[in-house]
Amino acid sequence: xxxxxxxxxxxxxxxxxxxxxxxxxxxxxxxxxxxxxxxxxxxxxxxxxxxxxxxxxxxxxxxxxxxxxxxxxxxxxxxxxxxxxxxxxxxxxxxxxxxxxxxxxxxxxxxxxxxxxxxxxxxxxxxxxxxxxxxxxxxxxxxxxxxxxxxxxxxxxxxxxxxxxxxxxxxxxxxxxxxxxxxxxxxxxxxxxxxxxxxxxxxxxxxxxxxxxxxxxxxxxxxxxxxxxxxxxxxxxxxxx
Length: 241
Ligand code: FES
Fold this sequence. Notes:
The protein is of the alpha+beta class. It has helices at residues 27-38, 47-58, 63-73, 77-84, 106-110, 113-124, 166-178, 204-240; strands spanning 98-103, 137-142, 153-156, 159-163.
């Protein structure tokens, strides 16, 4: 696929007002955004990938980025927020450069997760959910991270770092702060460093045909409902005379 960005026509939803051009996302991110959008039959299908792209730029999903994304895919900023807020991996509030998640689900709990989390809160000086004053670390309490045979399980920016003791946890945090782990743990927001170049191969003509059939069916049901309503009204009027 060409590296050149290919802006696509973005259909506006009914009632959507015109939006200003993107002003927050960088030119490089915008180019990648257009490439992503071009992979899908419908621009709005790229909404979540674009949220990750914006989160990679800023570390979290800012209101300005959500406004840009809304304009790019033809929805409202509220719809972007509504979608993003559903997913744990998208942060609509600022977070630290490293989001450290400690699993406290059953296997990890039995393996000392509660004690580890207490230690983490003490050593970082924040409660779970908080961010250190230097902005380096956000501490999260997580549900099962699917690494139950290495307990207590810890992830940093969604990378597994293996079972941790209080001592190894402190060493891990020191490495994160010094940048010693940047090769395997990039700053928060970077999901992958390999770029996807191929997307859904849905046939746009087939999508259009299926949509037209759906619209026709919907119109038919609406007409039948109206006819039934009118019929009921006629019967009622007739029986009352
Ligand atoms: S219970 Fe902690 S990773 Fe599954």
